[in-house]
Amino acid sequence: ERCIELCALLDSPYIVIHPNVPPECTEENYFELAMEPNLDYFSSFAPLLRKTGVKIAIENMFNWNYEQDRGLETVASKAENMAYIVDSLNERAGEKLFVACLDTGHGMISGGGDVPQMIRTLGARLELVHLHDNDGRHDKHFQPFKGVIDWDAVCVAFKEVGYSGNFSLELKPAAGATREYAEEAFASAKRLYELFLSK
After folding, report:
1. How far out from the chain centre does Cα 2 lie?
2. CA distances from 29 to 72, 75, 164 (A)
3. Is-contact 146 133, C-beta < 8 A?
4. How does DSSP classify residue 18?
5. For residue 71, what are the contacts with CB-CB under 8 A and spacing of at least 6?
6. Strands, sheet with 98-103, edge to edge from the N-terminal-most edge strand
7. For the packed helices 151-160 and 115-122, what is the interaxial angle rounded to 10 degrees?
8. Is the distance from CB of 128 to CB of 56 less than 8 angstroms?
9. Predicted TM-score (pTM) above 0.90
């Protein structure tokens, strides 16, 4: 609640929150175990969201199997599930208080790997994007164009749905990252923005 109030004080229209991912969720039971507790939890913030004018953006997330070193689907891994959550929360609230935040890297890990299709599925629900790349298996937070994501197709999908929200570059540089890394990150963001404009 204090974070939502701080967003309002900073004139930030959004707060991005990961869904609750119970550790006992596996591929067989992730949806049933996690959906209702998440809907109940997020719905409880509706009065404060109305009061402050802040919207909660639900981010796609994954669980992890450490023994097999791979991501697992969870309540908001796939765009269809994210759309269901956002629509259900707004239906309970009786107004649009909840939106979607697509994390491109997480989409590669447990969202099915088709980030452009995730964008199309979320459509108008999508108001925030966390941009980063990876190897398709691990949450590396590489700069765009340093991994496996097809950024050309991603930009086409953004244009198709009329996306006009924020792009947030979400990188995790290694310890001791240099100015050169920052300059490369800026160049990758510029390249991606120019690609988006060209579509």
Report:
1. 22
2. 11, 10, 35
3. yes
4. P
5. 62, 63, 64, 65, 109, 110, 137, 139
6. 14-17, 55-59, 98-103, 126-131, 166-169
7. 10
8. no
9. yes
34: its two tokens: 């996690």
Q: What is the pLDDT of residues 91-142, one digit of tens each?
A: 999 999 999 999 999 999 988 899 999 999 999 999 999 999 999 999 999 9
Site of tokens 């049933």: 32
Distance CA 31, CA 87 (A): 16
Contact 156/162 with Cβ under 8 angstroms?
no
The tokens of 10 are what? Answer: 């900073």
User: Which residues make Cβ contacts (< 8 Å) with residue 93, sequence separation at least 6?
Assistant: 43, 46, 49, 50
Angle between helices 30-43 and 79-93 (to 10 degrees): 30
